[in-house]
Amino acid sequence: MENEKSFIALIEKSIKKNWDLDALTDYKGVTLQYKDVARKIEKLHIIFEECGIKPGDKIAACSRNMSNWGVTFLATVSYGAVIVPILHEFKPDQVHNIVNHSEAKLLFVGDVVWENLDESAMPDLEGVILLNDFSVLVSRNEKLTNARQNLNALFGKKFPMNFRKEHVSYYKDQPDEMLVLNYTSGSTGFSKGVMLPARSMWSNIEFGHEKLGKCLKAGDSIVSMLPMAHMYGLAFEFLYEFCYGCHIYFLTRMPSPKIILQAFAEVKPSLVIAVPLIIEKIIKKNVLPKLETPTMKFLMHVPLVSDKIREKVREQLMNAFGGEFYEIVVGGAAFNQEIEAFMRSIEFPYTVGYGMTECAPLICYEDWKKFKAGSCGKAVENMEVKVLSPDPANIPGEIICRGDNVMLGYYKNEEATKEVIDEEGWMHTGDLGVIDENGYVTIKGRSKNMLLGPSGQNIYPEEIEDKLNNMPYVNESIIIQALDGKLAALIYPDFDLAFSQGMTEKQVEEQMEANRVALNAQIAAYEQVARVKIYHEEFEKTPKKSIKRFLYQEAR
Questions:
Q1: Is the pLDDT of residue 188 over 70?
Q2: 191/295 same-domain check
Q3: Are residues 435 and 479 both part of a single domain?
Q4: Cα–Cα dist 528/406, whole Å
């Protein structure tokens, strides 16, 4: 029975079944078919074997998304080694620390990342390999040097009669065996190594197939724009699709809205995986301005005409994402309420999920046709979800979960593991929410972000921010509690829009103050915002595009 829950068996089966189909493409670059991926995997296996890598050893990878990153991931886990994905956005010191802390034997690295790294800061590495072409950048192991130099000869010796699908036979994983060691990059600033077992990977991928198998089939296309070193992008823009024969296009450059829209138009993906910020930017810049003219506002109130306009807007927005997708799955951070209400009004096929690295990543999801607005869906199969509250439907409490998706714990950090996983196996997420009688979970905010009002009232800054972000010329905001106990709004205004409309910086400041007054009229007395501080650069973000709040805790 254990074999049936094998993550690596899914990879092996897909390669054999989809041998002649296109698998991985670097957008505007080379395409690998499933048989090409298999060949590259075997060559990496030869390198691993020759330089003495054993099952359970750690292999790190740090780069922007690209086909060879995907190949390296597949080669590592199918060998029985543990992959350590590292975000290319991490600072060099962070990369050095993760490589050292994880005890990685090899580091696969992109050329841009490598320029800033210091090999002497990673003394235990046996070698560094360039992901662009798998050339050896650093070798502290003669066997590695020889294996790379003689790789084609070694491959020919191993497969003298040509390499065929019958030769594909990979490591047999066990459900509780660690295959991925993923270091978090959260809004608290501390990075921990999350140990993800084979069962958590298998469970997420099988759930995806169960829920999306009817709309996503072998040969369909997907655009991978979220970093693969983050579990959301890794699981649902790469692994799930690869395991079922899809064609994955990697945006190898910085995914700006312009590049994203261009890729969607060309690839026409069958499914879109996104974070709220990407969707919000596209709608705020490309759709809402057209609807906010006096004429359009009037027409939106004329019954038959408004229906026609909504239909047209929906069509345009569908086409912006390629026009052939089943749904957009939004996750990683809270969704702006105004944008969500607009998407509901035009019957746009979107849904919001909920997860975290520690669950590889899924905790909640629901199909867009059944999805409840404002929620993040229901507990996924193989998972239980509860809210620790005397009245879970009405009073927010901590969200806890248990099941196949949950991690083994934090690497070399028993104390931190015990803080989040209790004796009954429940993982304490640190998120606050409610759960209704039908099982729909609605997130209210992070428990660490919750503030106390003057009389001990619970203040959820995310709810105030959501209202503020809908006000004129506000790009994004953070609500903090200043040293005097009063609330302050840190705002990054939409300077581009304001200046294009002839506003001065002084007028932008006046508008932000007017927004503060308007905001206070909408919220409770204990939630009142006392002052505004303007930022001229956008707030630093995690890969999920959540603001790194710990950097902005004092309004100076």
A1: no
A2: no
A3: no
A4: 39
Q: What 3 state SS string does 276-327 have?
A: HHHHHHHHHHHCHHHHCCHHHHHHCCCHHHHHHHHHHHHHHHHHHCCCCCCC
Task: Using pLDDT thresholds of 50, 70 and 90, give the confidence band for residue 544.
Answer: low
Q: Per-residue pLDDT tens for 201-253?
A: 999 999 999 999 888 999 999 999 888 998 999 999 999 999 999 999 999 77
CA 454 to chain centre: 36
CA 205 to chain centre: 15
Residue 198 belongs to domain spanning: 2-21+32-207
Mean pLDDT of 461-471: 88
What's the mean pLDDT in 390-414? Answer: 96
Question: Which 8-state DSSP code applies to residue 26?
Answer: E
Residues 96 and 195 in one domain: yes
- The SS3 of residue 253 is coil
Instruction: Count Cβ atoms below 10 Å from residue 551 Cβ, excluding itself.
Output: 11
Tokens 């650069």: give the residue: 537
Is residue 275 a contact partner of residue 544, using CB atoms and an 8 Å limit?
Answer: yes
Element (H, E) at 513: helix 505-520
Give yes or no for a contact between 272 and 260, defined as CB atoms under 8 angstroms apart: no
| 129 shares a domain with 17 | yes
Task: Tell whether 10 and 129 lie within a shared domain.
Answer: yes
- Looking at the domain assignment, is residue 220 inside a domain? no
For 214, 225, 445, the CA distances from 267, given in Å and listed in that order, are 19, 13, 36
The b/e string for 130-166 (b: 16+ C-beta within 10 A; e otherwise) is: bbeebebebbebeebeebbeebeebeeeeeeeebeee
User: Can you read off the two tokens belonging to residue 182?
Assistant: 């993923």
Nearest to 544 by CA among 283, 277, 337: 277
Q: How confident is the model at residue 1 (pLDDT cuts 50, 70, 90)?
A: very low
Within 8 A by CB and 6+ apart from 265, the residues are 319, 322
Q: Which residue among 177, 207, 237 closes a domain? A: 207
Residue 464: inside a domain, yes or no? no
The alpha-carbon radius of gyration of the chain (Å, integer) is: 25
Q: How many domains does the chain contain in total?
A: 3
Short-list 375, 543, 548, CA closest to 478: 548
Question: Per residue in 469-501, pLDDT tens?
Answer: 989 999 999 999 887 778 999 999 999 999 999
